Amino acid sequence: MAISRLLGVTRLCLAVRQSVFSSRAASTVQIPTTKLFINNEFLESETEKWINVRNPATNEVISKVPESTTSEMEAAVAAAKAAFPAWSRSTILFRQQIMFRLRDQLIKNRARLRDSLVLEIGKTKEDADEEIGRCIQILEHCCSITTLQTGETLPDIAQDMNILTFRLPLGVTAGITPFNFPAMVPISIFSMSTVCGNTCVIKPSSCDPGAVMILMELCLKAGCPPGVVNVIHGRKEPVTFVCDHPDVVALSFVGSDEAGSYVYERGAKNGKRVQCNLGAKNHALVMPDANKERTLSSLISGSFGAAGQRCMALSTAIFVGDSKQWIPELVERSKTQKVTSGAEPGADFGPLISPEAKKRVCDLIQSGVDAGAKLLLDGRNIKVKGYENGNFLGPTILHRVYPTMECYTTEIYGPVLATMEVDTLDDAINIVRTNPYGNTTAIFTASGATARKYSMKCDVGMVGINVAIPFPINTFSFTGSKGSFKGDLRLAGKEAIQFFTQTRTVMEFWRE
């Protein structure tokens, strides 16, 4: 369809949706619609229920995503189930080669995928490139499957008798993925699941489905057989569907506490393997002996980067001893952050995903003020020239926040940093240990002994020492703990291989 006929739909939107979306009339404007991906076909949904996808920098409707019908969801699972026998019996070298080709396709289409992330979620180009870089690393890790999926043997446990173990795929798996990393999280689930021999159904966020649909195009070009990966859309209905469907044997989830608890309880009740990565409240400890320049820069990027919309974001800074004297400088530096559309050059971070998300964050900021916190920097009234209707929120700093305040107990998910002051390292450790979340934390110090003490006593799954966001590379597992994770085996690394496979033990006896 010619660009001139897409009245009000941006040129970028057209480029992103090339061959993935079809046109559907909506009053006098042609609005692109997101297709399903079932059995290697992009299919127009027959639903009567559609969800508007908006550019968060302008709130203009850029596409529509369907609420998948029951028959469409059944078709996706049926396709995955039908593909499983042949796919699971394919050689590990065959599956490895598809991962190599998918990696190459991702590199070739990097700019297109980046544009999708900028348009639909409001990421800066730099953030989008970083996410795509992570996707490439994930695929490179999957290309090592020939060494990752090895078993064990022990010969001669008795005369002429050996014992051995090997790993086999499970069956049909499903992934329920969030809006904040619409390429990285889906690819981390379906690539690891399928390279282990499973088939997969992905339910992406209805806020930004474009990235997943581009990835499905690349799977086609990489030679992925029909039914190995499938995509359905919607809000709660497809989540309940995959939790209940008897042919889905394992569920991977990344998202909010409420939705993750629902998936874990419902999926586990139905006998499925479940891994759920939930919310977070991540603390950064600032010791007086830390490098001030690097620490303040790290706090700003770790707290406000990606508009705070990531489970790894630093949301609380605990200043120990004399380091509290750095707070005024932290405030002044934070004021220099450039907040605008991610498509604009030099943007430090972009908008929140929706007006509802912005209102929620603003309400939590006000709850802190009402409870006695001091608002050192207020980003609620920011105006972005040229994007007056966007969901923008500037850097915000709440000072002297206490653990009983709602702005502390609740994951804010916005560019808001809460600050605390304590006298000693032990006081700070006590705050971190008593927080119900355990996703990630950081400490800034020049002392190895201090860093070691904190890393051993903090009771948090991932620790950064002079690293604001200790997001491990994919060869290591994503080890959030306590209230940040439900399940047993985690995403990425060796635990992902264990999650997506089952172990078989064989004892063999061959008399000479």
What's the helix and strand layout?
Blueprint: H1 11-16, E1 21-26, E2 29-34, E3 36-38, E4 41-43, E5 50-54, E6 61-66, H2 70-89, H3 92-108, H4 110-121, H5 125-142, H6 145-148, E7 152-158, E8 161-169, E9 172-176, H7 184-195, E10 199-203, H8 210-221, E11 229-231, H9 236-244, E12 248-254, H10 257-269, E13 273-277, E14 282-286, H11 292-304, E15 314-320, H12 327-334, H13 355-370, E16 374-377, E17 396-399, H14 406-409, E18 416-422, H15 425-434, E19 437-438, E20 440-444, H16 448-457, E21 462-465, E22 481-482, E23 485-487, H17 493-499, E24 501-509
Parallel strand pairs: 9-10, 9-12, 10-11, 12-13, 14-15, 14-20, 15-18, 17-18, 20-21
Antiparallel strand pairs: 1-2, 3-4, 5-6, 7-8, 8-24, 13-23, 16-17, 19-22
- Give the neighbour order of strands across the main sheet: 16-17-18-15-14-20-21
Classify the beta-strand content into a percent band. 15-25%
Q: Could you give the count of β-strands?
A: 24
Low-confidence stretches: 1-27
Tally of helical segments: 17
Major β-sheet, in short?
7 strands, mixed
What structural class should be given to the helix and strand makeup? alpha/beta
Radius of gyration: 24 Å
CA(first)-CA(last) distance? 73 Å
**Rounded average pLDDT:** 94
Please characterize this protein's 3D structure:
By secondary structure, the protein is α/β, with parallel strands linked by helices. Helices cover 37% and strands 24% of the residues. The strands form seven sheets. Strands 16-17-18-15-14-20-21 form a seven-stranded mixed beta sheet, sandwiched between helices. Helix 5 packs parallel to helix 7 (184-195). The longest helix is centred in the N-terminal third of the chain and has 20 residues, at 70-89. The radius of gyration is 24 Å and the shape is globular.
